[in-house]
Design brief:
About 40% of the residues lie in helices and about 15% in strands. The chain is an alpha+beta fold. It has one domain: Class II aldolase/adducin N-terminal domain (L-fuculose-1-phosphate Aldolase), CATH 3.40.225.10. An 8-stranded mixed sheet has the order 4-3-2-1-5-8-7-6, sandwiched between helices.
Length: about 230
Amino acid sequence: MSNYQHIREEAYAANMQLPKLGLVMFTFGNVSAADRAAGVFAIKPSGVPYEELSPANMVIVDFDGKTVEGNMRPSSDTLTHALLYKTWDTVGGISHTHSTYATAWAQAQQDIPIFGTTHADHNTVDIPCAPPMSDEMILGNYEYETGNQIINCLKEKGYDYKEVEMILVGNHAPFTWGKTAAKAVYNSGVLESIAQLAMLTLQVNPGAPRLKEALIRKHFERKHGPDSYYGQA
């Protein structure tokens, strides 16, 4: 048995959640699961339909994007995942989808405003949209530069990747991350829901106001603060 069976199974299970949650179609999207101690991650093979996936065909890649184990070509987004893992030392899973509403906001090159408590349950700020990539970056190592695009956007906005676990890449699509692959997929689902609600909000009222700060703090802290009381102990 592979030394990396645990992350093969984790990545497989997470990838299979994407179509189940309606976040992908055909071969769109991918999820990876990292073993930080070993310095590797398992990721979906490129262009393989979800119904044909198995733990055995997840590809093991190191944090420089080099294949360590596996006979299939890894996802075309592998270098993006690799750079994020290499730069952010607490991330254990990364999810990339082309889900409808989040991708629409990315194509519009717009941050998703914080309009309601559903958003505030997960973030205290607008969901950032990284600016479109420069021609120089596009002509260079494109997938690697997508990682830089994500990292640089959060730095410029002063956001901590441990607190803001989702982003839109301008003209492209969303990426999310978390301590596990399952959390990264959870964040993909949350982001899609927030994106849909925000779009509908603006259709109902194009001048809808942002959620007031007191409600932002209340809803975020009751789930994530030092005195949180949401859920079970």
